[in-house]
Design goal:
Blueprint lengths: L4 H17 L17 H13 L7 H5 L5
Length: 68
C-alpha cells in the first residue's frame, strides 16, 4: 500500500474525515531502518509460515516441504 494510489486515496479520505469531524490526526511513519523495510524480515515471515511452528533442529528438517 505504501507506493500505490490507494494510499493517496486513503490519506485524502482521512483528511476529509478529520476536517468534517473537527479532529486532529497525526501521521506516524516507520523509520527507514524499521524491519518492515528490511527484505530479510519478509523472508523470515514467509519461512515462519512455511515451517508452521515446527522446530528446525536439523538441516534435513529445515529443508522438508511443509505439512498440508
Amino acid at each position: 500500500m505504501e507506493n500505490s494510489s490507494s494510499r493517496t486515496q486513503f490519506i485524502k479520505r482521512l483528511v476529509e474525515f478529520a476536517e468534517k469531524s473537527n479532529i486532529k490526526i497525526k501521521l506516524a511513519y516507520y523509520p527507514l531502518y524499521h524491519s518492515k523495510y528490511n527484505p530479510i524480515e519478509r523472508v523470515w515471515g514467509a519461512y515462519e509460515n512455511h515451517i508452521s511452528g515446527d522446530i528446525m533442529g536439523t538441516v534435513e528438517t529445515t529443508l522438508l516441504l511443509p505439512k498440508v
